[in-house]
Write a structure and sequence with these properties.
Layout lengths: L8 H14 L8 H9 L3 H4 L1 H23 L2 H21 L3 H15 L3 H11 L5 H29 L2 H21 L10 H6 L8 H30 L6 H15 L7 H4 L3 H21 L3 H29 L5 H29 L2 H18 L4 H7 L3 H6 L7
């Protein structure tokens, strides 16, 4: 029997597997750079390929939620990761822009399959009061892997960008193997009356979830701008695109080092909307720093600031989405909320490359900073609906309070 405040073994094992997966997961930010350098197309044209990838991730996320319920959590995670490995190797071996585009779309169709079951494993294994901590630790686990991934990207990127996709494929296969070995076997599912009640769950009709989906999509738009546009922005300012790997490493280190701050009493006392608003203000400050940064040290300082904002936003948002779900609806709520990344994935490459092409890096990052300030103000739109429903807005903050030894 586990002690109060102690996370179950399945959560820790999943976190360890995702660390391994993250070690190779810095290929996509360099996809646009690979296309422009290897095939000689413009930045604006190259941005269409990541946009097609983003479009494909929307059905991928929803299918992942369905497969998790029908095939089981573990099977779906393994299937999705294996598909990612195969398509990443296809990009690395492609000999034409058409081949890269086809592989990118296929990658998008499998890329999000493993996210809903991964998040559902955490939601299933934890109570509402533990979920903020659990999802924040998932973010930290990805950041730990990202620390190594950033260094890998900086090294392999100076040699050949295609090797980044090979490294990503290897990490996906390693993660799939770990999940297959360490996670509990999927149980055979038998429909019952409870399932009939669950069939009436409609996350797309939940007003609070839909508001959060809008916020989540705009947040994902900002985050993906950093992942996609930062290497291009550095290149335009006379720095190496591969230096983005160093900035990503600093971001990961910041998220890991700042984890204890989440349990400070003042932060724990904040409601979910207030904590999210604070996170968006920090994101705005960091991106404003990118708008004026023309040297690597200045960019490093800006990276630390926005990473602190990301620390506050990501774990809290997923915990709140999980807590909104009625019994039996967690997987579908998380899958619906997670489509925010697919919607943003369509717009982010096109928006970022067009702004860089026609307005410049300063306008891009200043615009993203302004958007974060709008998001900070908008968080209080959900304060009243949350209070009226009596959801776990307060329970999610309780997870940040010091637990019993």
């Amino acid at each position: 029997m586990r002690r109060e405040g102690q996370l179950p073994p399945a959560v820790w094992l999943l976190l360890a597997a995702r660390v391994v997966n993250r070690l190779g997961a810095f290929s996509l930010p360099f996809l646009t750079v690979l296309i422009t350098t290897d095939y000689g197309v413009s930045v604006a044209t190259a941005g269409l390929v990541p946009a097609a990838f983003g479009l494909a991730t929307i059905p991928s996320r929803l299918i992942g939620g369905r497969l998790a319920d029908r095939l089981g959590r573990r099977r779906t995670i393994v299937f999705g990761l294996t598909g990612c490995a195969i398509t990443q190797l296809g990009i690395a071996a492609a000999n034409s822009l058409v081949e890269v585009a086809v592989c990118a779309v296929l990658l998008g169709l499998v890329y999000e399959l493993y996210e809903p079951p991964s998040q559902a494993v955490i939601a299933d294994a934890t109570g509402p009061a533990e979920r903020v901590r659990a999802y924040s630790l998932l973010n930290a686990a990805l950041a730990i892997g990202g620390m190594g991934a950033g260094l890998i990207a900086a090294g392999l990127g100076r040699w050949d960008l295609r090797w980044l996709f090979v490294a990503d494929a290897v990490s996906c296969l390693a993660c799939a193997l770990i999940v297959r070995v360490v996670l509990p076997a999927d149980r055979t599912h038998r429909p019952d009356r409870g399932d009939e009640r669950c069939a009436g769950i409609r996350p797309w009709r939940d007003r609070v979830l839909l508001i959060m989906l809008v916020f989540g999509t705009l947040y994902a738009l900002v985050y993906l701008q950093i992942m996609i546009s930062l290497p291009l922005s550095l290149e335009r300012r006379g720095m190496r695109p591969s230096d983005a790997g160093l900035l990503f490493t600093v971001s990961a280190a910041t998220i890991v080092a700042a984890q204890p701050a989440l349990r400070l009493k003042r932060l724990a006392a904040l409601t979910a909307p207030a904590a999210l608003a604070l996170g968006y203000v920090l994101l705005a400050g960091g991106l404003a720093g990118y708008a004026v940064a023309h040297t690597l040290p200045t960019s490093l300082a800006a990276t630390v600031v926005w990473s602190l904002g990301d620390l506050l936003v990501l774990g809290r948002a997923y915990a709140l989405a999980a807590n909104l779900a009625p019994p039996g609806g967690t997987g579908r709520y998380l899958a619906a909320y997670g489509t925010s990344w697919g919607f943003a994935g369509i717009a982010a490459p096109i928006l970022g490359t067009q702004l860089l092409e026609h307005a410049g890096a300063t306008a891009l990052w200043a615009g993203m900073a302004l958007l974060c300030l709008v998001l900070a103000a908008g968080q209080f739109l959900i304060t009243r609906p949350l209070a009226a429903r009596g959801t776990a807005a307060n329970q999610s903050t309780a997870a940040l309070e010091p637990s019993s030894p």
